[in-house]
Backbone:
């Protein structure tokens, strides 16, 4: 599949990694829909930047943990652009939740944002793509879905779920729809992380540095344009952290 004149939906496309993904596919000629929940100002600024690449772009507000909102989002994108070729499930939460303070609410919020949302979007988009007999779904997982770390139990479990969801969807939607995941390592430090802690994280990575959102965006572009013979795969973009 080529990106030129195709339609890509990037959830959480207003900020951080989602923003980088949206910009990268727009630069290759794709028309872009992005979703946001509360980042309205950032979403509108992103739409303006996307349109500067000569493509169509629009932002849609949605709470992706709501089936009604997720279904409506897919319908709105299809109505606005006439098709949906690629779904990138990038919207996510990353919240520190020490075990001694962990609550049911923490669990629900992380699983809703990071696993239920991608499932609901893929459910609606996948059915549309099956009718089209063509499409791709790319889920943003995390290396911690395979090697969890302390103080982020709901987050790590949610990303493990995204990996399982990817493989199960790949079977359900074959042969016409390919479903793959990207598992980033240290790409963007969370807000408030000190320089000393960032340096310690980099030291543990075999490549001895942090990656960048562009590394993830480039991998998304590869999964769309580079091959149509991958499904159910998880691509680790982690500087070798998984093997450290």
Residues:
């Amino acid at each position: 599949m080529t990106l030129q004149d195709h339609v890509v939906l990037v959830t959480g496309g207003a900020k951080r990694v989602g923003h980088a993904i949206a910009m990268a596919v727009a630069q290759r000629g794709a028309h872009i829909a992005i979703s946001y929940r509360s980042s309205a100002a950032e979403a509108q600024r992103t739409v303006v930047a996307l349109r500067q690449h000569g493509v169509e772009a629009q932002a849609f507000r949605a709470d992706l943990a709501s089936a009604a909102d997720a279904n409506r989002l897919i319908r709105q994108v299809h109505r606005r652009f006439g098709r949906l070729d690629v779904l990138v499930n990038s919207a996510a939460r990353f919240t520190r939740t020490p075990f001694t303070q962990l609550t049911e609410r923490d669990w629900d919020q992380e699983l809703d944002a990071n696993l239920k949302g991608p499932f609901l979007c893929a459910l609606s988009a996948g059915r549309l793509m099956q009718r089209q007999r063509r499409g791709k779904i790319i889920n943003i997982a995390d290396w911690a879905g395979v090697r969890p770390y302390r103080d982020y139990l709901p987050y790590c479990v949610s990303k493990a779920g995204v990996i399982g969801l990817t493989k199960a969807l790949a079977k359900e939607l074959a042969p016409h729809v390919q479903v793959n995941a990207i598992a980033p390592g240290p790409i963007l430090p969370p807000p408030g992380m000190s320089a000393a802690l960032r340096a310690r994280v980099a030291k543990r990575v075999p490549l001895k540095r942090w990656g960048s959102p562009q590394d993830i965006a480039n991998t998304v572009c590869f999964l769309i344009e580079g091959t149509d013979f991958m499904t159910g795969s998880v691509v680790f973009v982690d500087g070798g952290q998984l093997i450290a």
